[in-house]
Design brief:
Length: 608
């Protein structure tokens, strides 16, 4: 089949910038306090350029209500009740430096555009975005990868809940500046994609303003195997890139097989599929899903898909899943197809009656859907057009990556009508002089930074390389300035913290980490106490100041050490020596202490 030989990969990487929001002066960080909520129903109008975008139309047909949680770091700009303020200067500077580091041509005139977004993730119904620079490259071990553009845009609202025709979003993330870097589709394979993402990430992170929280970097992977570009959004971790690409390859191979087999039957195109209301056949059904739909006033519809028998779900064939993903976007869970029936409480007898009514032959498949009458028409149009599109191997669409590396259908690929000018933001003029000055801030190449980190902080070059390539350089620098044991800091951020966060399934926010290391520095904590404090913060969901007061963390100070030793020496001076003093202090107290410091105290005492 050779789909793999036609692989083309491009990346779009988004980095949050931490200084403040892009078009107001709200901070990027917030405690998760809820001020109030409000609702909006998105109505996609034709854009100011005339026609209505396909993706927008699709979202509108889903007719979702959005509810917004106003956080402390949101204002009238996020509520879409006030025009945008001036562009955040630091975010712009970060985007310019990243552009120069990626060898791009910076544009002298920067225009913000409105990109239509109707899924509710923007209160205004659009996202503001501007191209900052174009035509660059980044060096990799397998040659240069071309950068098509560097953009500056506002992040969307954060989805909290989704279901029952309603989406709930928090405004805490809305408006955070994002630097978006798009490559040409010149990436060779999965590993090259990871290397490219790391190389690009390095330059953005090294420009100094990138945010250090978990979801601060998000990748979209664009992949094509010769049957149209698939844009996979929301790839959260670099390590997921290969899995997402290989999932997409096997999905497309499977669709290719289905397409070939179904065209042998000439099936799907032989006649236009008819939709029948079969609710009455299931009034007494044992299927919980069907029954609860009937009770809710929904109807059950069936349609015969000619030539699709055995192709809905057979081995790795997944046409059934493709359709289930589609209807789930409309909030519909009750979809069954003939390859999985009888099952789900639907009996052989019911199936036989249905097949007979639907005139199903062995070559055919039958689809059964429970949904509100109001949705049925648009739903079947979507299903039939999606099936026709997939069977013709027109695989262009936008998908979303799940945490396990699988992907699911999100929406059709947005058309060209998606953008129109943002007239509320003045054109930004970037002089050659400004560009010239910014060149001084372009970060060193990655190798030079690794050796610098290794030298300045006394880390092995391997550790320094991990710190730099996992975008933890700024974090190392900040925490080491507060707590002057860079080796312990490095071990903590590379190993201890990720392990603890995995164990407890929650994260320590950056400002709390900063506070923890401030306390650790002031109290000169040993590694064990620092690690114990992080453990307590995560296990109890506590603040650093709260855990610092815990008994088991109260590390002995110098005076306390001296007092204990004076006592020990007084009681049995002859038995106390340099070799056993640490053990004896341990025996005397249950509290942690710094052994090196204790030894120093001991020496000062025994000199006297
Ligand atoms: Zn604001």
């Amino acid at each position: 089949m050779g789909l793999r030989s036609r692989i083309k990969i491009g990346l779009e990487i988004h980095f949050q910038v931490s200084d403040g929001k892009l078009f107001c002066r709200c901070p990027t960080e917030t405690s998760s306090n809820e001020l109030f909520r409000f609702e909006r129903r998105m109505i996609a109008t034709t854009s100011e350029m005339g026609s209505m975008d396909r993706a927008a139309k699709y979202e509108m047909e889903r007719n979702l209500l959005s509810e917004y949680v106003a956080s402390e770091n949101s204002c009238l700009v996020e509520y879409d009740e006030e025009p945008p303020h001036e562009v955040d200067r630091k975010a712009l500077k970060a985007a310019l430096i990243a552009s120069l580091a990626l060898n791009c041509k910076v544009l002298n005139n920067i225009f913000f555009m409105r990109k239509v977004v109707v899924d509710g993730s923007n209160t205004s119904g659009f996202q503001r975005t501007a191209i900052i620079a174009i035509n660059g490259w980044v060096a990799t071990s397998r040659g240069k990868v071309r950068i098509s553009s560097v953009s500056l845009e506002e992040d969307s609202a954060r989805l909290l809940e989704n279901g029952d025709g309603r989406s709930i979003y928090s405004l805490d993330r809305l408006g955070i500046p994002l630097i978006e870097i798009a490559t040409e589709p010149g990436i060779i394979d999965e590993l090259h994609a990871v290397e490219t993402a790391k190389a690009i990430g390095y330059f953005v992170q090294a420009s100094g303003f990138s945010r250090m929280t978990v979801d601060a970097i998000r990748q979209d992977v664009n992949v094509s195997f010769g049957y149209g570009r698939v844009e996979i959004k929301g790839v959260q971790k670099l390590s997921l890139i290969p899995e997402v690409i290989s999932y997409e390859l096997s999905r497309q191979e499977s669709l290719h097989d289905i397409s070939e087999k179904s065209s042998q039957y000439l099936g799907f195109y032989r006649e236009e599929p008819q939709v029948h209301d079969v609710t009455d056949m299931f009034r007494e059904t044992g299927s919980k899903i069907l029954l609860s739909n009937i009770r809710a006033g929904n109807r059950i519809y069936a349609t015969t898909l000619r030539g699709m028998g055995g192709l809905m779900k057979s081995g790795k064939y997944r046409m059934g899943k493709e359709l289930a993903d589609l209807v789930r976007r409309y909030g519909i869970k009750g979809l069954f197809h003939s390859d999985e029936l009888p099952g789900y409480g639907i009996t052989q007898e019911e199936v036989d009656r249905l097949w007979s009514k639907m005139k199903k032959t062995d070559e055919d498949a039958v689809l059964l859907i429970a949904c509100p009458t109001s949705l049925s028409e648009v739903l079947f149009i979507e299903i039939f057009s999606r099936m026709a599109k997939l069977l013709q191997m027109d695989l262009t669409e936008t998908r979303f990556a799940a945490d396990d590396g699988s992907t699911f259908f999100l929406r059709p690929m947005p058309g060209r009508e998606r953008m129109y000018p943002e007239t509320d933001v003045p054109i930004l003029r970037i002089s050659d002089e400004t560009i010239h000055v910014m060149r001084n801030d372009v970060p060193l190449p990655m190798e030079e930074t690794i050796s610098m980190i290794s030298r300045d902080y006394g880390l092995s070059s391997q550790d320094a390389s991990v710190i730099v390539s996992t975008f933890r350089k700024a974090q190392l620098e900040e925490l080491s300035s507060l707590y002057k044991h860079p080796k312990i800091v490095a071990r903590f951020i590379m190993q201890t913290l990720p392990e603890l966060e995995k164990k407890y399934g929650r994260k320590i926010e950056q400002h709390k980490l900063t506070r923890l290391f401030t306390i650790a520095g002031e109290k000169n904590w040993i590694r064990e106490v620092l690690e114990k404090a992080a453990d307590l913060m995560l296990s109890g969901g506590l603040d650093p100041d709260a855990v610092a007061g815990e008994e088991e963390l109260s590390q002995l100070g110098e005076d306390e050490l001296r007092n204990i030793m004076v006592k020990l020496l007084a009681s049995s001076e002859s038995e106390t020596n340099e070799r056993n003093i640490i053990a004896r202090v341990k025996k005397e107290t249950g509290r942690p202490f710094d052994a090196a410091q204790a030894m120093k105290v001991y020496k000062s005492l025994s000199k006297v």
